Amino acid sequence: MNGLVTELFVVAWWAVGFGAVASATMPVDIDIAKVAKLARVALTAEELELYGRQLADILEHAELVQSLPTDGVPPTSHPLPITNSFRPDEVTPSLDRDEVLAQAPDHEDGYFRVPRILDGGEGSVDG
């Protein structure tokens, strides 16, 4: 359920108009039912109460973080000075096509054959 709380928080953040600039005090009076409707999530009365309390706690914590003195602190995208941590992009030989196709359950003319999953409606290749 933490993912749901995060989703509701993001929708609430968007719904109350927060973006790059936030006010000095953050409102914690958010209509959770409206936020759930915007997120297209059906919630019970108990869930509305629970997520309302959790969202209020999250916004209260965000207000505390926002009140920290940050004068002279440069903006960062990461707390540690990390540069590209990915491996170098090196060309390597690809797999042999015939060997890979030999392991496939079904293939035809050098391509994998897979079961049809579309009904052939509007916009499909065969419809």
Commentary on this structure:
This protein is mainly alpha-helical and 127 residues long. It has a domain at 2-66. 39% of the residues lie in helices and 3% in strands. The protein contains four helices and two strands. It has helices spanning 2-15, 32-38, 45-66, 97-103; strands at 107-108, 111-112. The protein has a two-stranded antiparallel ribbon. Helix 1 (2-15) crosses helix 2 (32-38). The protein is flat. The relative contact order is 0.09. Mean pLDDT is 77; it is low at 17-26.
Q: Which class of secondary structure composition applies to the elements?
A: mainly alpha
Rg calc: 25 Å
Q: Tell me, what's the shape?
A: flat
Which bin fits the share of residues in helices? 25-40%
Strand content: under 5%
Question: How is this fold's topology laid out?
Answer:
Layout: H1 2-15, H2 32-38, H3 45-66, H4 97-103, E1 107-108, E2 111-112
Antiparallel strand pairs: 1-2
List keywords for this structure.
127 residues; mainly alpha; two-stranded antiparallel ribbon; 2 strands; 3% strand
